Amino acid sequence: MISETIISAVDDVVEQMLANAGGQKPERLKIIVEHPANLTHGDYSTNVAMQLAKTLKKPPMSIAGEIKERLLAHVKINALFYKIEVAAPGFINLYLDWGKWASEASRGAILPDPDRKSAKVLIEHTSINPNKSAHIGHLRNSCIGDTLARMLKRIGQQVEVHNYIDDLGNQLADTVVGFMHTKTEEPFARFGDFCWETYAKINKAYKANPDLQKERAVVLHELEQGSSNVAWLGLLVAERIVREHLEELKQFGVEYDVLVWESSIVREGFWSQAFELLRTTPIFRQETEGKLAGCWVLKQAEDGGSSADNEDFHADKVLVRSNGILTYTAKDIAYHLWKFGLLGKDFHYAKFTDRVWSTQQDGVKKTIGHADRVINVIDRRQEYPQAMVKQALLALGYEQQAQHLQHVSYGVVSLSPDTAADLGVDITERKHSYPMSGRQGIGIKVADLLDRMEQIIDAKRSRRTGLSSRVIAAAAIRYYLLKFHLQTEIVFDFEQATEISGNTGVYLLYSYARACSILDKVKSESGQTAPPAAFDDLELQEHTLLRQLAYWPEILHTAVQELAPNHICAYMHELATLFNHFYATCPILRAENRKKHVRVWLTERFRETLRDALQVLGLPTPKRM
RNA sequence: GUCCCAGUAGCUCAGUUGGAUAGAGCAUACGCCUUCUAAGCGUACGGUCGGGGGUUCGAAUCCCUCCUGGGACGCCA
């Protein structure tokens, strides 16, 4: 990558200068290379001279001048840049030689090549409770997880995607209780939608008749035992729902390698094994008195004794309830020991669909799991239980694994007042946003959003060629859910989410198709145009487009580093915008020979780069639209 | 009570390991298709970066403090 080349060259140069001056390299000297916002500041710039002013006891400008001279003599810098300038108060700006860059870019040399044999990364995402249809909050999770998997694969890492199915949880039990104690008369097209209503109804019934909640405990117990009629019913419900979820998410390009069922964890004896391990640690023990008497808990450090005044809040985490039933976190700890290959036990597997495996007791052995790094995509509200899993690993002495266990936390999706009102929520309080609630049956179902988006696109599109409106709709929704910073709580608004102009997936696909259409007319095969040797008299729009193309490897790298898909979205929108400016300003096919060559080549590079980025985000690459 | 996250244009959001004139989309107004895809492009309008203090060559970004909103701390997941 270009920025890496600059950093290493600057590092060489700075070291020489410090050695000459007899100085030490400052501890916290970070050489940062930026993409200047302004074209006149070059294509890359660094502020290292200003950082060194104190150490070298010289004005930044003179330091920058010296670094510039030494960089100009540096082989690697010389090979890529034609000019370096110093700008007040001490910036060093570097200008790419586009002819040289072009020959490298065409060889693909600049893109990150697959690393040498890398560690195995296990990504868990989706993990929706299998008791009702999915809503857009679930979809955000799946899109993030699926995109992270694609990002890591793109840079050559070995990735395995897991979807954890909580088929022994309260929520599934609730839906089962709902089957037996609520009434349904209206028809539903999908099983999950019927369950959605049933789940809301049973929660309402619990309020009216709290005794009914005892039923849940009974069902939960039967689910865990696994042999009764009720257990079979639960299994059927969960499996049917999971199939609907997978089918639905497939439309958004979301895919998995393996489903891990919570019931498998229990029945394969994973918990018993984990329990024996945990018992050897001082922080795991059974309470004999107090509120948690009879429970097995993970003890948390008392902080200064002030917690005594707040009996409502205590940090200890129950893993086994006093009635002997396991909590989610208990099973999650066993699961994570297994993910890292630390349990000494393994699952068996059977095919769930033609490409997805599923844990199954009478299945076959597979080399699944045994990861070096684990990424869990789970919303921010679950930071505490995730921390408990990590703490259990630490308590067992697995420090390295704990360090390589990463919770990718993201903000929840809530509803704008207008959209909440559409769903019948009372918005007289005029809050900024309204939470979705499965228990109350409040939420935007994925299928409903997709249907509505499809209709909107169908009504507004001006051409019927290429992708179907439904495929475009799914892509638009996926992009919408990925473009926000992970920590941002998405306040979902129907009007805003269904935009088809501006910073949207539709705009990106359209720009891609536009480039394809133009290149079709020159009958250019991909990558066929030879890179121009020189780029003289570049138009502003040509230059800015070139620059943005050059930045792609670095953006991808940063996004992977930070596990932040939104960087890629922002980059692509900028890239597409610059291409459209270029398109509007510079005739491509009608230009004269030399210019035409440059412009066709640029359009080709744009198409290839955008295609790469679209694929990393899991979006389609339509030749026509 | 303890801890975490956030507050940037009318709305929704980028930008936050300190950098050069704080950006985008939507909305509003006005323009641009006999010419490569108008799902596009252009112009205009729009800001005490929640308030106050501090650190320094330089702060939306770091520190302190206050205000406001959201979340976690459950024998739910």
Tell me about this structure.
The chain starts with a helix and ends in a 9-residue tail after the last helix. It contains 23 helices and 17 strands. A 7-stranded mixed β-sheet has the order 11-12-7-6-5-13-14, sandwiched between helices. The protein has about 625 residues and is an alpha/beta fold. Helix 7 (about 170-180) crosses helix 8 (about 190-210), helix 20 packs antiparallel against helix 23 and helix 21 runs parallel beside helix 23. It has helices spanning about 1-20, 50-55, 60-70, 75-80, 100-105, 135-155, 170-180, 190-210, 215-225, 230-250, 260-265, 270-280, 330-340, 385-395, 400-405, 415-420, 445-460, 470-480, 495, 505-520, 540-560, 565-585, 595-615; strands at about 35, 45, 80-85, 90-95, 120-125, 160-165, 260, 285, 295-300, 315-320, 350, 355-360, 375-380, 405-410, 415, 435, 490. Helices cover about 50% and strands about 10% of the residues. Mean pLDDT is about 90; it is low at about 305-310. The structure holds one RNA strand of 77 nucleotides. This is Arginine--tRNA ligase.
